[in-house]
């Protein structure tokens, strides 16, 4: 099969029952377009943003206080426009609403530790934490940091912070000391929650020595609260201003959740860019915009309903953690897995989904590729009868992996490849549960998201590769960047390439079906003989070879042109032979063009990745072209760069 081949269409009954179709029908009747035409619904959502976002509010029951008559203050530059500028809300109470005995969180750790929290239990934990934070002097605008694992307590910490109008910011405990310093030294948390360690691949790691060094660089931290999770909890005697989580909870006077409302755009979360091109950017998201946006994505694009279970495999440092939590506000439960996704069973994510009856499962494209290469017959081994939607992000999902899901996981399934990012805490392009799925394609642009494709001159192009842009404001745009009082970094990050237009930095192409294909990061775009091409399409062909575990392509300037250098990471026990190199080049030539064929194909022992799992193509490109790699410590595996530095043919 090839890109664009049809893989799945929902039954008419299934499509009719979705929230997307119901919104389409009701808005179509009111505004005069076909009630089964998602493309028409999208166009209306762009042309009538105030009516659209008010309709979303009505469907998802998004309570606001104050004056809600102005949905969008649509004056000034794009970055200055604001949604619901006179309204206020309690994000915490919205996330916690529901019956006390309804399930809220399912949790499992790779060491078999399991728990289930009801909404009542989550509400009490949030209330206790909120009042303990208040007793510790936390007020609106203060930062509360977390070096935490993907546990129920971490979700409670996050919501408790929101309830006080304080700002939550988190990293994962596998970050090195320098990476933690680079982030928290900017955001300056007053209280730091931290786990004493973590487990991965059946090994325990004590993190207390890391915190001892970290706190020396964080004078803002008045108290570090340590959640003890290891088999043998390490001593905190040498950790200054420390307190156990349980002792901290005892300082709370009550477990009632504070009910104060804050402005719609009140700063709520600081998230960080990958930091691979310099110090990580501190991106500040508001309380209301991302929550409304994600409730829209979950309800309409994923068809998440009250009583469903959303499970996205993530860490607290990846934006998908923030993306998943608002499922609580839609009346669904969330599932958290802490540990290696292949431990104790190779298909652990699917095993956990089977165990608790997950309806919506999310994972990285890399994990799906691993399952395919191991030829895992998931559908034969697991009862996934309750699974309706499988989501993939982190990198483009190849056609082989689209086909693997339908052949080996489940044939009647909405497979939604989605793409957005930390910058918007949501998606630009994602799924449509009422429309067909085509191999290798993302189904549609998000409702209310004015996605377009621009050529280098800023012209909208109907075909061919171009820059992913968004031409109109959306609720989850950052409120601002931290420590950027004039907004220069914020505007420079998104609005300078095409003046006043959000330029996301992805190379994208429309498809004949009205969908999209992400071709890779535009700053890593290959340009041999002046022809722009993305790396993702090359990867899709190379990864069809089962001997290849992963690959990375970068441009090398030589003799006035750019040559493509392809690095392949071989699977265990496999070698890169001359025959395999020839086969790789032939497939690329046959399936793509002669211009895509790499000048060099080399074996690499490891490939550099960001902490969210994305290939660090720019770092390799810098080394090949004798340029400095900025902030290599931001990589998950900076030692991998040593191999590329010693390549004599590019020195």
UniProtKB/TrEMBL annotation:
It comes from Parvularcula bermudensis (strain ATCC BAA-594 / HTCC2503 / KCTC 12087). This is Acetoacetyl-CoA synthase. GO terms for molecular function: acetoacetate-CoA ligase activity; ATP binding. Residues 98-473 form the AMP-dependent synthetase/ligase domain. Keywords: ATP-binding, Ligase, Nucleotide-binding. SUPFAM superfamilies: Acetyl-CoA synthetase-like (SSF56801). It comes from the Bacteria. Belongs to the ATP-dependent AMP-binding enzyme family. The keyword Ligase applies. InterPro entries: Acac_CoA_synth (IPR005914), AMP-bd_C_sf (IPR045851), AMP-binding_CS (IPR020845), AMP-dep_synth/lig_dom (IPR000873), ANL_N_sf (IPR042099). One of its GO terms (biological process) is lipid metabolic process.
């Amino acid at each position: 099969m090839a890109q664009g081949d049809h893989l799945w269409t929902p039954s008419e009954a299934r499509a009719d029952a979705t929230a997307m179709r119901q919104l389409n029908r009701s808005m179509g009747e009111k505004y005069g377009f076909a009630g089964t035409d998602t493309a028409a619904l999208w166009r209306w959502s762009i042309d009538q943003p105030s009516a659209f976002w008010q309709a979303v509010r009505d469907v998802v029951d998004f309570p606001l206080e104050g004056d809600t008559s102005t949905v969008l203050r649509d004056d000034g530059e794009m970055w200055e426009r604001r949604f619901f500028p006179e309204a206020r809300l309690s994000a915490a109470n919205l996330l916690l609403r529901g019956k006390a005995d309804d399930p809220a969180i399912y949790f499992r750790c790779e060491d078999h530790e399991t728990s289930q929290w009801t909404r009542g239990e989550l509400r009490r934990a949030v209330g206790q934490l909120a009042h303990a934070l208040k007793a510790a002097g936390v007020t609106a605008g203060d930062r509360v940091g977390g070096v935490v694992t993907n546990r129920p307590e971490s979700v409670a910490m996050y919501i408790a912070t929101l309830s006080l109008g304080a700002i939550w910011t988190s990293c994962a405990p596998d970050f090195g000391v320098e990476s933690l310093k680079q982030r928290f030294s900017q955001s300056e948390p007053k209280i730091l929650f931290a786990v004493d360690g973590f487990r991965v691949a059946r090994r325990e790691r004590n993190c207390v020595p890391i915190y001892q060094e970290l706190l020396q660089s964080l004078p803002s931290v008045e108290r570090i609260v340590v959640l003890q999770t290891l088999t043998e909890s390490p001593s905190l005697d040498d950790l200054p201003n420390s307190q156990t989580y349980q002792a901290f909870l005892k300082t709370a006077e009550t477990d009632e959740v504070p009910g104060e409302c804050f402005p719609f755009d009140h700063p709520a979360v600081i998230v960080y860019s990958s930091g691979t091109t310099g110090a990580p950017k501190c991106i500040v998201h508001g309380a209301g915009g991302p929550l409304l946006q994600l409730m829209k994505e979950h309800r309409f694009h994923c068809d998440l309903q009250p009583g469903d279970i959303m499970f996205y495999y993530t860490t607290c440092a990846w934006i998908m953690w923030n993306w998943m939590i608002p499922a609580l506000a839609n009346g669904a439960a969330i599932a958290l897995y802490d540990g290696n996704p292949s431990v104790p069973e190779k298909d652990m994510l699917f095993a956990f989904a089977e165990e608790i009856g997950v309806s919506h499962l999310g994972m990285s494209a890399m994990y799906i590729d691993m399952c395919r290469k191991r030829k895992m017959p998931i559908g034969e081994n697991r009862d996934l009868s309750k699974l309706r939607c499988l989501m993939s992000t982190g990198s483009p999902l190849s056609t082989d992996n689209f086909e693997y899901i339908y052949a080996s996981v489940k044939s009647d399934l909405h497979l939604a490849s989605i793409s957005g990012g930390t910058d918007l805490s949501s998606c630009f392009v994602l799924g449509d549960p009422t429309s067909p799925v085509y191999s290798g394609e993302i189904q549609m642009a998000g409702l209310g998201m004015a996605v377009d494709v621009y050529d280098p001159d800023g012209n909208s192009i109907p075909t061919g590769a171009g820059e992913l842009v968004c031409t109109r404001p959306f609720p989850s745009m950052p409120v601002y960047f931290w420590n950027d009082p004039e907004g220069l970094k914020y505007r420079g990050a998104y609005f300078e390439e095409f003046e006043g237009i959000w330029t996301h930095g992805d190379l994208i192409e429309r498809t004949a079906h009205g969908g999209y294909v992400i071709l890779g990061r535009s700053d890593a775009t290959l340009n041999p003989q002046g022809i722009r091409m993305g790396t993702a399409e090359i990867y899709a062909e190379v990864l069809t070879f089962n001997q290849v575990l992963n690959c990375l392509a970068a441009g090398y300037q030589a003799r006035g042109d750019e040559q493509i250098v392809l690095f392949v990471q071989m699977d265990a026990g496999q070698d890169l032979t001359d025959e395999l190199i020839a086969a790789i080049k032939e497939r690329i030539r046959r399936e793509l063009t002669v211009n895509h064929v790499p000048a060099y194909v080399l074996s690499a022992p490891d490939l550099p990745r960001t902490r969210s799992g994305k290939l660090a193509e720019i770092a390799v490109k810098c080394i090949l072209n004798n340029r400095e790699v900025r902030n290599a410590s931001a990589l998950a595996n900076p030692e991998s760069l040593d191999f590329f530095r010693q390549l004599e043919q590019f020195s």
